[in-house]
Amino acid sequence: MKNIVIIITTIMLLAACNDILEETPMSIASENFYNTGTEVETAVNAIYPPLQGGEFVSYFTHLTPLDDYAYGRGSIAVLNDYQGYGTSNIANMGRVWAALYLSIRNANLVIKYTPNGTKTTEREKAQYIAEAKFLRAFDYFYLVRLWAGVPIRTEETIDEIDLPRNSVDEVYNLILDDLKYAEDNLPDNPRLLGTPSKWTAKTVLADVYLYLEEWGNARDKANEVIQSGKYSLVEVYEPNDFEKIYGADVLTTPEEIFYFKYNDERGWPLMNFFHKYGDGYKPYGGNYYSFYSTTDNFFYKNWDDDDFRKQHNFYSWDIGYGDNTLLFKKYIDPNGAGNASNDWPIYRYAELLLIYAEAANNANNGPTNEAIECLNKVHRRAYGYYPEASSPVDFKIGDFNKDSFFELVFKEKGYETILECKRWNDMVRTGKAAEIIMEAEGIKINESMYLFPIPIAETNYNKAIDPVADQNPGY
Amino acid sequence: MKKKSDLRRNKKISWIKKLFRFMKLTSLFILLSVMSVFAGNTYSQTKTVDLNMEKTTIKEVLSRIEDQSNFIFMFSNDVVDVNKKVSIKVHGQKIESVLNKLFDGMGINYTRNGRIIVLSGAQGKYSTSALQKHPVSGKVTDSSGAPLPGVTVVIKGTTTGTITDNKGNYSLTSIPYNATLLFSFVGMKIQEIVYNNQPAINVTMTIDAIGIEEVVAIGYGTMKKSDLTGSVASVKGKELSDFSTSSVSQALQGRSAGVNVQQNSGAPGASVQIHIRGTNSIQGSNNPLWIIDGFPGSEGMLNASDIESVEILKDASATAIYGSRGANGVILVTTKRGKAGKTKVDYQGSYSVQTVRKKLDLMNANEYAQLYNIFWENTTGSEYFTQDEIEGLGEGTDWQDQIFRSAPIHNHSLTVSGGNEKTKFSVGTSYFDQSGIIKKNDYRRIVLRSNLNHEISKKFNVSFNTILSRTDDNPTDDSSVLLAALSAAPTVGPYDDNMDYVDLNDVYAFSPDCLNNPEAYFNEVSKKHVNNRVSASLAFTYKPINGLSIKISGNVSNSDYRSDDYTGVDYPKSSGGASIGTSRALQLNSNNIITYNKTVDEIHKISVTGGFTYEESTSKSLSASGSEFLSDATKTYNIGSAGTIGIPSSSYSNWILMSYLGRINYSYKNKYLATVSFRADGSSRYSEGDKWGFFPSGAIGWRISEENFMKDIDFISDAKIRIGYGETGSTAISPYYTLDMLSSGKALFENGLYTYFAPGTRLPGDLKWETTAQSDFGLDVGFFNNSFRLTADYYIKNTRDLLNTVQLPTSLGYRTTIKNIGEISNKGFEFQLDANILNQELKWDISANISFNKNKVIKLYEGQDIVGSIYNVIVANDNINRLQEGKSISAFYGYQWTGFDEEGHYTYKDNNSDGDISEEDKTWIGDPNPDFIYGISSNMSWKNFELNLFIQGSQGNDIYSLSMINQNYRWNYGFNMLKEVLYDHWSPENKNAKYPSIDKTFSTEMGDNFVKDGSYIRLKNIELAYNIPVNKLGIDWFSEGQIYFSGQNLLTITSYPWWDPEVNSKGGSNSINQGIDYYSYPTAKGFTIGVKLSF
């Protein structure tokens, strides 16, 4: 009896002691999560912030000066020489890599744990997994274009520290698989503005097919989006009407396919780099990396002065480099308090129309009526005409063959998607970069610049990647 | 196996439980005693003695009585045969009856004077020989002239003597001619005076500053300094308040060997980094543990004037009793205590004026325009300013004058202390108010403190300590104000013609984009940070039998912090912005300590300490922000009126540490000393199964000077060798680091924010204690009657299971994890010399210390380097500090500058010869760790004058001047810069220049040309004081007075080219970014006038 008392007392004391030293943080432990619809939804939301935040902004700041219409200041000034990336550029792009992979990790967690949920329906599960897969594909699409074959991390290899580089084809296969799943399982309308619908998935698929040069597939996916009737171009009748698309106060437009959304509370971090205090176009931070152009710039000079987009996109402002200096007006928030609430357009309907035009032309070995109509819609609007009806500035099918029509679409896409991080990728994809830079700047481009080096934070700590043998060419 | 360990745990727990039960009982017992015991009569009337001794010597009986009471016997062996054997058995008898019984029939007489009992032979009252006798009397005073009561006056070689009365007077009725009088008093030097028929012998006693009988605080107790086996440095409160410092840490700078105090910036109230014997930890804090009156506390709560003494425990044999909290050393602070006797009132007051120590030599308006004409010419081919314009500009504005001011410090403290045999008290208040040398910046601290000690009865004692403190400061955004002051165009002032703020970013087309007009900042931005802290502790001591003491004490500390930062609507580019942060930290502590002291046969002295302690800390924070306000009327006090309200945030954190501790001190014939201690700590922060850590230590000491063979060596008065080894730990991780938690944030959709939950980027894992093992070899030697005392120590410290951040490949999504892998070592020598050079009318004491520490990273996870933060100063963007195996901690790693290319741009060494300058070309370019640091203080006094000097310095440390890169190469952004840029830049005519060509290209990297020698020697304080001869003035109520005039930082010898070498902009308790100078608040110099008065 006495022994029993002692044993019971000891057990109680043991429990008491463990209680004292046991931590009870006021936060959520991961093992009990991903159970209900709301929980999974907040886990899905976590895939976006790495892309919306400051690290990923380096993608914009580095791709823009590589475009032929913009110059960079500070550490990105070196990009204008096209002779290679500086240490600072490489470090910043390493952060882009990290942001993309953080987004991928959060997607993988959703894909891995959602199926175990006890309080979610199969339909909910499929929808959330589809959103996660869409974003995972989206992330890998950026990675494969900037770094070529990268280590593929999926829900199955989430804990493996050392993973080798996969081939470019393997990465694209994953992207296609994920996008196809997303296309099948995403809802008709986005869960929230800023999240993908099935039409978003199709748009990205069309773009991916362009990179894979599967012209027919690209055309067909783009066409499905066009035929859905979900989207249309915003009408523009004077240059300032473009504010209806890019303005800070715009919540959404029929042209929005996939945007990163920002508001007054959480502005687009990039925008601190655009304007100069005094010009009235807020916000203005330490615009250390500010971009500028000049009236002597080749792209600018050749751009038709009557194009509303040209009139809308630039303003003259001397930043100490002479009075021919131009700053960019595409994203302004003159009434904003501190942050720029302009959204970052990732895919707009106008771009999709041009994707269709390029794909259809290539698939058909020459322009089709549909292709030329898609191009014309975009072109008409830029001159202040109603996009859906023929106009005096329309291009005629008979005037173009496959090559000249491609050039035309390429040029139009350059104007239409200026400051949307499209042009450098297109220049590299189509193999036109060297030619364009030579023509515009008289510079022979260093070809290592087509890819960034695998970041040192990866090669140092991932033992499956040899820092020399597995590095991209030229590094 | 598992079962076994569980069983062990059971045992431990029941032990705790028992202890708790015991504590409850004792507390109750104490409470009952408090109620039942009433104030007694005077000591000797109530004091009773129990004796039961058979056939023992009288000497032993007397010694037993001394043990049981506070009586002291004085006698001479020649007169009293104390070796005579007696038997005595008394119970609860008063002293008189015991002595009568004891000396019955022995021809021994006795006289009692207070607690002193003098024995004499049968012949007379005093046992003086039958020689001629003379009466003598006199007065004993201390160095200030105040009477000293209680001084023992004895004729040398006899037991005849007396003690001084309340007025310091004594008289002896008869002493022989040529006899020597000995005057002795605790803490004072013994004085010997030969009687030559003087009518009066007046004596001035001086403090025995370097007395070896000094008692020092050690962990959970006190100890005679001569019995120490560990390395413990003592600093007196008086030294700390020599001159006004905004923190106790700053006052400790240069005072003790092995203690490296570095201010991170010169701002009032700025954080200070203290490293004792080097850097141990990467992940955790390297700051020592502060124990204030027995409990962990914050030094920010105290003014130097509140402090009686500070003990710094340096080696592991001293710190191991603090276990997991002791790895960085322990600083024990004892606040002022009351003493029995007359109530004493002390006032100290001072007023200082500080100014910036050095201004930088910037271009004036004219030179600015010249430089930018060169830039303009080199970039656009034409000049910006015409010659007429340049000539019209003149000197322009020196923006440094716009931000700096001469700033006062007020420092006042008042302490009232006193008490009687039973109750002692000390209450005090202090007020410290320092204005910064940068406008609008200030720091204030008010402290209220009380210390009560009451002897309820012979067996019970209670003490109560409280400290209430309030610090409030108005910080400036130092780096942005300083950046603006150095970078703004000197061609304009703060206001334009319409009295609007000049926009410094819009003066010229090439103006910068990042400057805030400092004047606008001063007027429109307000920051107020207030911290109210309270710490209260109550202790009961129970001494059931002689030598045994049980102390049960508890402490509650609470800190309540609030920051109110507001940017006004008139501030350029602002629509008003408010942010509020509050945090509250509650700390509960309980110490339950049993101490037993026993001396056996005068040979074996044993002291045993054991105990249980419990610490719990909880902190909560809440913050809110908003922007867009209609007016500045509400500031931060109506955040709901903001146009845009930020996302509020709150947090919670809690940790618990429970510990058992024990220590045994043993000394044999005061010659051989040994200390063994252990502590077991259980921390909530570590993984299950690794929560408990054990920290043992052992040390031995040998007082060679007590050996017979040393008795003949006259010039060595004291010598001790100490050898110790111990282990301590560090709670280097924050709570919850081992748990898999999701953190939340906001994602943007639609036009709003949506919550997300995801793991952070740190992969959690199982973690255990970081352990530091330290060996210490020490030597204490006193020469010439301890006029010179040298303490030398050599230590080896190895920190193993070092917690460090391990990088993961970024593709994992998790970027880092923390692992217990790594090892750091610190080795060093320390020397402390205290010398009493002159002790005549001119007195001169010198105290000097020097310490050499060498640290080395031994092992890191898989040999991965740990790199410091990346600093982006536009013209360069890179990290500087690095930890690598085999190198010293935080050494600088970067490029080597080689000169200029043909266009006048900087070039760097291509170490891997690949034709390209890249990461691989970096190498070791500097080391922020000093070769040695030192401090020298000199105190001279002559008559009523004192001259004190305090010199402090650091040798062999490098500083990476990030400010210089940012400041002197930003012509692309219209910065003003040093004059030398204009006069010494590269041009085809000046190819051997310091600066590159003034053009659009950035050619700077984090190179070795910005590594500067940070060595300095500084006259920290020089003070001339006059002691008012109060006794000559005949003012009874005024016992001591001093007026002094002093200067701080008046002289600095350094080659460091920027503001000040005492800088560590990115430092912090666990920062690996050491030795970087980035627009740190400059150090001030100052003059002080002050008084110290006692009544």
Verbal overview:
- The complex is a heterodimer of chains A (475) and B (1095).
- Chain A is mainly alpha-helical and 475 residues long.
- Chain A is built from 18 helices and seven strands.
- A four-stranded antiparallel sheet of chain A has the order 2-4-6-5. A two-stranded antiparallel ribbon of chain A has the order 3-7.
- In chain A, strand 5 (314-316) and strand 6 (325-328) form a beta hairpin.
- Residues 9-16 of chain A have low confidence and may be disordered.
- With 1095 residues, chain B is mainly beta.
- Chain B has a 22-stranded antiparallel beta barrel. A five-stranded mixed sheet of chain B has the order 15-20-21-18-19. Chain B has a four-stranded antiparallel sheet with strand order 8-7-10-11, with no helix packed on it.
- In chain B, a hairpin with a 2-residue loop joins strand 13 and strand 14 (221-224).
- Chain B is elongated and about 115 Å long.
- Chain B starts with a helix and ends with a strand.
- At the A-B interface, helix 1, strand 1, helix 2, helix 5 and helix 18 of A face helix 1, strand 32, strand 36 and strand 37 of B.
- Strand 1 (28-29) of chain A pairs antiparallel with strand 36 of chain B.
Q: What's the total helix number of chain B?
A: 15
Physical arrangement of strands within the biggest beta sheet of chain A: 2-4-6-5
- Assembly type of the chains comes to heterodimer
Distance between the termini of chain B: 69 Å
Shape summary of chain B = elongated
Q: Residue share in helices of chain B? A: 10-25%
- How many strands, what sense, and barrel or not for the largest sheet of chain A? 4 strands, antiparallel
Strand content of chain A is 5-15%
